[in-house]
Amino acid sequence: MLLLTDPQDKETVLAVYLNQSWWPVEDVVKTADPSRDGLISVQTFGERIVLFVLNYIIFGMLEGSSANDAFFLPHSDTECAKILWRDGEAVAFYTVKMKGSLCDGTTSQCYLLPVLDTIFVQRKYRRGGLGMKMLHDFCQSFVAEDALGISCPISAAMYQVCQKFLQTYPEEQKRLWEVEAPGDWSQRVNIWLKIQMESALSETAHLTSPEDEEGSQVEYAQSSKPKQSDADQMNKF
Q1: CB 3.0–4.6 Å: which of 42, 161, 171, 196 could bond 81 by disulfide?
Q2: 3-state secondary structure of 224
């Protein structure tokens, strides 16, 4: 795929070359099809292009400068994904590593549970409940599974989404785990339990006197180092 970048800033993509024409990035993720509304599974080649633009260009190049965002690379074209369409525009997406799929191309290990691998909402559409909507859709897509994973490490922003989601849907508290591939029991941490533990630690730190706090501060920041997507490691917004 050809990209037209700003001569003064190679990280700024101005247009994408498709069907023998140059298209502004914002036009690539739009549709005139009224049936495209809500979360729709990615199946066609055109939908893969939209997913690539959302993933690699809008997030990876245009919106990936925030220190609060974890950078991720384009995922495999065989990975399960859904795009969230709203008012004729692709505004968000999430991808899933399916149970039984290979963790990478170098070992025979397979995922032991479905894992939400990447999730992204365009910056202008954040704080509107779309993260919650996609997390709920993920859980409802695997109602027969006793355990579901979210790939490690989970960003601070995603933890806030998880906390609100699990408070709203307490029946999911036992099912959601932060996991490392392939996701056996030694590689899982229950997300709700971790949230409760960190909340208790925060409360304890708040009650500690200033002289006791010196030299014993608790660090809660999530890692946001660049990671290989699909083949090597899992990552997310």
Answers
A1: 42
A2: coil
Is the preceding omega at residue 153 within 30 degrees of 0, hence cis?
A: yes
| 139 in a structural domain | yes
CATH number of the domain within which 48 lies: 3.40.630.30
Q: Is residue 231 part of a domain?
A: no
Structural domains counted in the chain: 1
Question: Which residues share a beta bridge with 121?
Answer: 92
Q: Is the pTM of this model over 0.70?
A: yes
The answer to the question of residue 121 being in a domain is yes
DSSP state of 101: S
The residue whose two tokens read 């490691």 is 233
State both tokens at 102. Answer: 């290979």
Distance CA 144, CA 222 (A): 31
**Strand pairing class (176-179; 148-151):** parallel
The verdict on residue 220 lying in a domain is no
- Enumerate residues 6+ apart whose C-beta is below 8 A from 173: 166, 190, 192
Tell me which residue range forms the domain holding 116: 2-205
Contact 91/127 with Cβ under 8 angstroms?
no
Are 117 and 229 contacting, i.e. CB atoms less than 8 angstroms apart?
A: yes
The answer to whether the CB of 91 falls within 8 A of the CB of 121 is yes
pLDDT (tens digit, 9 = 90+) per residue, 108-137? Answer: 899 999 999 989 999 889 989 999 999 999
- Flag whether pLDDT at 232 surpasses 80: no
> Tokens representing 25?
């990035």
